Each structure stands twice: as C-alpha cells, then as structure tokens.
Amino acid sequence: MFTRAPAPRPPRSPASSKKSVSVEKLEPRQLFAVGITIDAGSRAQTMDGFGTSFGGYTPNVLTNSTKFQKMYYQDLGASMVRVPLQFTALRADDGSLATPVYMGPDLKDNIKKFNFADPNTLRVGKMVRASVRYGVGKVAVIASLWTPPHWMKGAEVSSWDGKPNGKMPELKVGKNGGSSSSIGGSLIDSDENLTQFARYVSAFVKGYEAYYGVHIDAVNLQNEPAFRTWYSSAVYSPQLYVKAVKAVSRWFKKYGITTQLMGPEDVGVGNAASPSILQRQMRYIEAIRRDPEAVRAVDVLAIHGYAQDGRNANRSPQMWGEYYNGRKSGNGPSWTGVKADGKPLWMTEVSGEGPTWGSAIRVAQTMQDGITRANVGAWVFWGIANSTTQPHGEALTQGTDATAKKYSAFKHFSRYVRPGAVRLATNANDPFGVYASAFVHDKDKTLTTVLINGSDTDQKIRLRLPGIDLAKFDIGYVTDATHSWTRLRAFAVESGLAKFTLPANSVITLQGGMNRPKPASVSGFYYKDRDADKKFDGVEVGLPGDKIFVDANNNNRRDARELFATTDAKGYFRFDALAPGAVRLRREMPAGWEQTTPVANLVLTGGQAKTGVLIGARPRA
Questions:
Q1: Which of 51, 68, 344, 553 qualifies as a cystine partner to 62, CB 3.0-4.6 A?
Q2: Cα(75)–Cα(7) distance, integer angstroms
Q3: How far apart are CA 209 and CA 238, in angstroms?
C-alpha cells in the first residue's frame, strides 16, 4: 500500500526539505486499475494562494500567539489571508456606524479619521502583520466589506430588479465597547454618497497598509451582496454594485492605489436542484460585462463556495463546471460562464464539515472541484481555528491542533501548491472516485500532484509523466481515517512512470524536483492575405505593429496573462523562452478583420527553434 517514513520536523519552506529520503522500490509489473496521465503541454490557471479569514470563533489568544502564527504561515503554508474592512475603526464620537464622518479629497487627511488600533481591527491586524515575519514567501492580503457606514445606507432595494422592498437598514450599537452592526439597507445611489464611499474605502486600504506594514492585494466592496442578515450586511442590485465598483476604481486611480478590485463574492455555486443561487452571482457578473468601465475595474472574479445555505459547503462539482463553462437550459436559468472573461477566479469563503475524516475528506474534494472544474486559482476557508469549546464547522481546527482532519485535508493543497504554480491537466477527473490535480512551478522547478481516492477500496495507480523530467517524488504525505499528514517514503519515477497504491478514502500530496527543460522559440511572418487563399504567395506584404499571442486556454481571445509578440515593421514576430509542449498561436483580430490561415497548433520540444510560421489575415468582405 504505502510506506510511512519517520515524521521529520516541518521545514520552514515547503519546497526546500533537504532531509535524505530513501526511494521506495517499484512494485512488480502487473495490471493496475487506474492510469493517470499528467499533461505537461496543457496548462490551465495560475495559482494565487490558499488561506483563511479569522471568522467564526477564532479568539484573540490565538491570533496573538507566536505558536499559532507560525502554525498558520509555516506549517499550514497559508499564502493568503482575508480580512474585514471595519468602518467601526472610524474616530466617531459614539463609536458607531451612524455618525457621519465626511471624507474630503485629501487622502492623508482621510486616513487620520481612522483608528487602526481599534480592538476589532487590531484583532486580525496583528495576525496579518505576522505574515511578514513568518510567511513563506509573499502572503496575499485580501479584504471584504460587510457594510458601508450606516449613514451611507438608505431604503433597501431588491437584488434582482433594484426596486425598493420596503425595508430600511437597522443599527445595533455594541455594548461595552463591542462592535456595532448595520443590518441590511442599500448604499444610497447618489454621486455625492458614492464619492464618500469611494474615499472611505481608499482611506481604509492605504491607512491599514501603513499601520500594519502589509499591502492589501485585493478588496471586495460587499460580502454576499444579495441579502440582509442578522449581522452587518447590505443589499446591492447588480446595477448598484457596478456603480460602486466604478466609483471606487476612479478614486483608486486618482490616489495611485494599486489594490485590485475583486467580486461580486456572492454566496456560492448552489447545486443542481438550486441553480438560481449561481444564477444570482452571474447576474452581477453580467451587469459588469455590460459596462466597459466596470469590466476594466474588476480585476478578479470572486465567489463563495457554499452549495446551498451559506453555512455548509457540501459538494457541487457539476455547478463548479457550469460556473466556468456556462449553462444552457430549456426550462431553467441559463448564463454564459466566466471562462471567456479572462480574469483570475478566486473562491474567498466557505465553511462546514465536522471533525471526522468522512466529513473532512469533503473539504479536499470540494477544493478539487473548484480548482479542476472552474479553474479557481485561490481558495480561502472561513475560519482557521476555534477555541476548544466552540462548534467545529466554522473552522479547520481547534486551538493549535495541527493533526485535525480538516486542517490536514486543507494542507494537502496549501502546503506545497505555492503561488505562481500552474495547473496541468490530468485525466483523473472522477469527483467520487480517483481525482487528481497537478501543478508545475517553473521558478522552483517542482511538480506537485494532489490525488484523492473517494472510493471505499484501495486503487493501484500508474502515474504517467510524459515530457516531464522527474526522477522521483521525494516529498509525500497521506491523510486517511487513521493517518493525519503522515510522511511517505519517496516514489521512484522510471521512464516517466510512477506506481503506487492510493488507499481507500485518502488524500495524497506528492512533490518532486524537476530538471528544467531547455526553452523553445518560435518565429514567423504575419501578412495580409489579399486573395484569401490561406497561403503565402510570396508577394503579399507583412502587417506591422499587430499582436500575435499564445492562446493558452483556447478561447480565441488574448487574456491578461497570455504571452504576445508585436510584429515588427516588416510583419515578422518572435517568441523566446517558451515552455515545451503544445502551443496555439493566434492573431488578436481588430474589428472588421478575420484570420484566413488555420490556428498555428504547434508541439514544441525542449531547445527547439521553430521558424517559418505563417499567419494570414484580411479585412472581412
């Protein structure tokens, strides 16, 4: 089955253990049940990070603890943390959200109106500050608002049609210094109020960064914007949400703030029986799509991971696929998926599941659902730890228990799948059986794979690695009903093949160091195909100043992270330092033009210098 290794002390850097590890002998050749291939030439999303917020019942005694901070950033390997934007940090006379504190155009003056040592802000702020000291590499800090200040809100509008629903915001002032809550209502839709809101967000972001010594990488303007709850909340129609996004984006630009905007961050993907939950998220996205300024303003599409009720994760692999690829239904909601939007996709909140392995393995399976079916590049759980007396579902563990099953399940991704890794396609995509994801980190020269066996029987695996120069997986961990993050002996790779047994109901993470293949290059000529015969006739002229791009996701458009080359004065182009594997070259077509030659589908080998690629185009008739 698998061979346990002595439990070493966790290294500071997940990718740099120097302990000697013996290599497990290959099993005798026999008929194996499951063949898995990792496709080095099929690259998907870039991973941005894994982490949690400190929601639920995470007490101050933990967030202030060095032991807890090291557990989070070094043992769990968290590379992302989500914080709340607390308007209760305002220096208001009564300490509530009700007292207007007007913001002028001067950012520095506005920052002075906040108290970033406010207990509610400081509780998480100390933990975030520790990321600089204990983080393994850069830790991304993301932030969400639960409500605008109470005085900025008025009559609540429907999240579906924007019409008033007869409800007003309700203020609950905290007792004995406790935080205030502003429940429901909607941001007042006026230019003056939107300006105030944008200046508030700007001042909080820059003031928080200065006080805690971190950069806020992304901010969302409303946590779960579609409904009011018993805690601080606000309701936005899709149109109102777009207005808020544009207002904040404009003031970010005026102040030179580089923090990205993410959203809409609604409750989740729903399930097959409740597709309207995901339809609601897509209504916000569709409103953004209709407004070119909003499209430019939103950098990251964020969503929560709940399948139904906003408290429990459950699983919904079908809906993760429909979020990405779209949904066509003759008797239900339909939408265009986020695949064509060309933006990073993040899951920024989910919770649920109990302490047993039968429940905890679903944490890993749900992560695999979003990562492989929706190309999600970040996964953020709601709570990291509760006190020992509080419910387990809100968090991954209790106290500083690093052996908890949910904690271990999450760690199978967070510890070794580092920011900047790129997911590779695999053929093991049975969400209730053998389920695999794989990630290559070009800078670190590592290949990491997470394999899940959701069945009740052991599965013998033949893991094929064509085109990947890897001698062994020298790092390996397993979690199942009787083991929590247990070290494995190394798995040898011979002739691009590794063989091992995946225990029933288990998760395994494997990582090995690669020899980096030599880069490849491609050069060619882009010309005006005058007679549209789909070939170069020798006299046709080149087109200068146009973009040829590597269409990595095959969506027929140049996305933000895709490589491109600009043709020179004679129409020639060149790509250097391309990774070996499959490459698709297209022209980014201006309006009124069409490409006449087929897409250049190339398969490059290490060190290859491919020349003579011809791409023709002409104005549409």
A1: 68
A2: 13
A3: 29
Strand spans (E) along 493-606: 497-502, 506-513, 520-528, 547-550, 564-566, 572-578, 581-587, 593-595, 600-604
Counted residue by residue, the chain has a size of 621
Residue 214's pLDDT band (cuts 50, 70, 90)? very high
Torsion of CA 340, 346, 351, 354, to 10 degrees: 90
Could you tell me if 425 and 39 are in contact, meaning their C-beta atoms sit under 8 angstroms apart? yes
pLDDT, tens digit, 9 for 90 and up, residues 496-505: 999 999 999 9
Dihedral (CA of 521, 41, 361, 493) sign: negative
Q: List, for residues 316-346, the tens digit of each pLDDT value.
A: 999 999 999 999 987 889 999 999 999 999 9
Q: What is the pLDDT of residue 57?
A: 75
Take residue 39 and report the two structure tokens written for it. Answer: 């496709």
CA 26 to each of CA 30, 463, 490, 500, 554: distance values in angstroms, whole numbers, following the listed order: 11, 12, 11, 8, 38
**Residue among 69, 78, 213, 57 nearest 127 (CA):** 69
- Give the number of other CB atoms < 10 A from CB of residue 466: 12
Residue pair 383/102 in contact by the 8 Å Cβ criterion: no
Q: Which residue has the tokens 């002998």?
A: 25
403 burial (CB, 10 Å; 0-12 / 13-18 / 19+) is: exposed
**pLDDT attached to residue 394:** 86
Name the burial class of residue 467, with classes exposed (0-12), middle (13-18) and buried (19+) by CB atoms within 10 angstroms of its CB: middle
ω into 84 cis (within 30 of 0): no
- What pLDDT, on a 0 to 100 scale, did the predictor assign at position 330? 78
Assign 3-class secondary structure to 53-110.
CCCCCCCHHHHCCHHHHHHHHHHCCCCEEEEEECHHHECCCCCCCCCCCCCCCCHHHH
pLDDT of residue 530: 86
